[in-house]
Amino acid sequence: MAFRDLIDDVDDVVFETLGDSAFIEGRAEAVLGMFSAPWKQPAFGKVHSAIREPRFEIRVKDSDGLSKGLRVTVDVPALDGGGEYDLLQLEPDGNGLVALILRKRA
Q1: At the top level of its lineage, which domain of life is listed (predicted)?
Q2: What is the Cα–Cα distance from 88 to 54, expressed in whole angstroms?
Q3: Residue 85: predicted pLDDT
Q4: Pick from 31, 27, 41: which is nearest to 11 by CA?
Q5: CA dihedral 72, 95, 8, 21 (to 10 degrees)
Q6: What are the domain boundaries of the chain?
Q7: What is the DSSP string of 40-82?
Q8: Which fold has domain 3-104?
């Protein structure tokens, strides 16, 4: 079994167990990923993250056909940043994940 196949199996378990879900315009089913709303994260002293935009990280295999401008509805409580966003750009990390950079819809 190839390394990528093993990692894909690990990702299946991690995303199913710990992942958040989002509905992406044009898709019938929710996509699992990891949502981050940096303005909602706890502050520890004066340490600030370089992350500024809300982002939803998904697997490369779930990113086919995605493009700028799609509506992404993140299914987490509103107090945790859930709600409707516009997809601004896709940022692959080279390790099998793609960050969907989001902007909150007005």
Answers
A1: Bacteria
A2: 10
A3: 97
A4: 31
A5: -20
A6: 3-104
A7: GSPPBTTB--S--S-EEEEEGGG-TT--TT-EEEE-S-GGGT-
A8: Thrombin, subunit H (2.40.10)
Burial class (CB in 10 A: 0-12, 13-18, 19+), 22: buried
| Amino acid in the structure at residue 41 | Q
Amino acid identity, residue 60? V
80: its two tokens: 């945790």
Between CA 64 and CA 87 the distance in angstroms is 14
Residue-wise pLDDT tens digits, 47-83: 655 557 899 999 999 999 999 999 999 999 998 999 9
Question: Which pair of tokens denotes residue 43?
Answer: 């502050």
